[in-house]
Amino acid sequence: MDAFFRLSERGTNLRTEVVAGLTTFMTMAYIIFVNPSILSTEGTGLPISGVFFATCVAAAAASIAMGLFANYPLALASGLGLNAVVAFTLILGLGLSWQQAMAVIVLEGLLVTVLVLTNLREAVMNAIPMSLKFAIAVGIGLFIAFIGLKNGGIVVQDPATYLTLGDFTQGPVLLAAFGLAVTLVLVALGLRGGILGGILITGIVGMVFGIIPLPERVVDFRFDTSTVGGGLLAIPEVLQLTLVPVVFALFMTDFFDTMGTVIAVGQEGGLLDEEGRPPHLKRILLVDSLAAAGGGALGASSVTSYIESGSGVAEGGRTGLTSVVVGLLFLLALPFSPIIGVFGGSVPIPGPEQGQQIFVSPVTAPALVVVGFLMMTSVRYIPWDRFDEAIPAFLTILTLPLTFNISYGIGFGFISYVLIKLARGKPGEVHPLLYGVAILFALVFAAEPFIS
Fold first, then answer.
1. In this structure, are residues 200 and 194 in contact, taking their beta carbons and an 8 Å threshold?
2. Which of 9, 43, 196, 340 has the most crowded Cβ, counting Cβ within 10 A?
């Protein structure tokens, strides 16, 4: 094991790697609760137990593959933001079936894989200005936080003002507010696994007060595999030009998030070379891209590298053994689907209109708000004093959550970036690829009334 993972060479040992893997798992295990909650939103048709199984298996397979093939302390699981695209844009927005939505994820993962194998990934990455990369991350953070507020019933629809404050006389809404306060405190105190701790505390309090039901059993070895393979079978149904912008938006989100995560984790662990590159970069990117396709095939949404891996690296993790430990822990979580179903499930409350009923997920909703905060901290890297960079970034951040569509937000950013650069007489600062993408988005916006 020492020779295979190069433990001694990287200044670590078996005990350190196991502790690092456990630490990483604790900081990202919230996805076990949150991913089923998002993908099983009312109207998607995805079963919460099936998504739970797919989430654990996809994360386990990808993390173990990263450890064995790339020997890098990077764990993977279903990506927040990407799962929101599947649930709210592809299924609820465009009206795709969940099988077709997962097929889009498979295609996106295969596209990234081709770019990795042909060494084109860096070329595509260089085409997008840094200001827009950061803006996309910030916009997705706000989108995730908004979904959290909505799922907790803290904000609800209003016929006059579009949105208004929820009804805090309702137990589930109060529970969501309590959970948000607890989770924020835990994260602010710097406790590892603070988000997971917030979910567990909120769920237990909800059970004590009868706001959410008690699980019928603690463990269940009857696994729900109903989502497995659905995305693969539906691939022929999604080979259409109207979905190209959505595939590109998914590709963008997955693509740049991974690059930033790989570098950040490598920097934390001192694993980068003189040019800032981690060892076996192509292997790392190949595992990540195949994991995205695999997540779609299993029904777990796109699987991507987790920045939470840095917590394990901070504990001394330096090799792929850390990732293998994370993967094994995801497999150990599989029998606990009854608990996950209760924690991530929805409960009905009266809606803002007479006789209306809405469903909220008070236990997992606070975690989304906090994750949204963490994702949008990169707003500080946007050059706000340069209007030709800042205005497109602002439009991306503004429109992405308000249109409830990640690809639309990216489209506004790209189009405005090209137009402003041309207006200022700086066409050379725009990569040729960006012109083509901006034109594509413009055509999609123009055709939207006819498509819908």
1. no
2. 340
Q: Which residue is associated with the tokens 């195949």?
A: 290
Please give the Cα distance from 227 to 111 (Å, whole number). Answer: 22
Quote the domain boundaries for residue 419. Answer: 383-446
**Structural domains counted in the chain:** 2
Give dist(CA 428, CA 24) in Å, integer: 43
pTM score above 0.90:
no
Q: Quickly tell me which residue has 């299924």 as its tokens.
A: 91
**Single-letter amino acid, residue 289:** S
Does residue 365 lie within any of the structural domains?
Answer: no
Q: How far apart are the first and last CA of the chain?
A: 56
Which mean pLDDT values do the consecutive 10-residue runs of the chain (452 residues) have? 92 92 87 91 93 97 97 93 86 93 94 85 70 83 87 89 90 96 93 84 94 90 95 92 76 68 78 77 91 96 88 87 96 91 84 79 88 84 93 93 81 93 92 84 72 46
Question: Helix, strand, or coil here: 349?
Answer: strand
Report which secondary-structure segment, H or E, holds 78. strand 76-78
Residue 429: DSSP 8-state: G
Do residue 394 and residue 310 come from a single domain?
A: no
Strand partners, 303: 78
Q: Which residues of 210-247 are buried (b: 16+ CB within 10 A; e: fewer)?
A: ebbeebeeeebeebbeebbebbeebbeebeeeebebbb
Give the Cα separation of 41 and 261 in Å (integer).
28
Determine the Cα–Cα distance for residues 67 and 39; give it in Å rounded to an integer.
27
